[in-house]
Amino acid sequence: MASPEEPPYYVLISHNSLLNNVSVPASSSLAHPSVIQYHYADDSPHALLPQYPGEHILVLDYDPSKLTLPTVKSLSSDLAVSGLRVTDAPGAGAADDEPKRNDKMYILETTAVLEEKCISVEDNDNPSPHSILARFKQRNTILRRALQYPEADPEDQSDTEPILASPPEPPVLSQGLPT
What we know:
Residues 145-179 are annotated as: Disordered. The chain is 11% helix and 30% strand. The chain is mostly beta strands. The chain has one domain.
């Protein structure tokens, strides 16, 4: 069994796509991050900045000396973190390979931040009440998830079963670790 002081090794990104149609449940996909970069407390924070336009960077702040769950932050303007689930990684405890690894699976829950055009009277004289209500419900769902994180109970955050697929652009994950 791996020591809990080891940095996270098993990391997945759960990207939730909220749809405009509220009657359709939100879709979710699981993917591996394209890069996991370990960043320690004494490293320069400039290494965390995006290297190219459209790059998604998530920072998993993991400190084994703290007894609380790690926190996740997004450095991307169009990707928001809505939660973190920590579970036992299936089969990780049975592996006898060296070096020892953290046997927990960290699932970073994200959602896309939608850029909406301001609805003006000239563009749409009579917006549909259904579309206004759907937009309100969508925003309300995102706000509730964001306000509940990181204090939210992990069992309460699973609205739907995730669908295994790859998101269009997996985010780069950088982990802040203590010295």
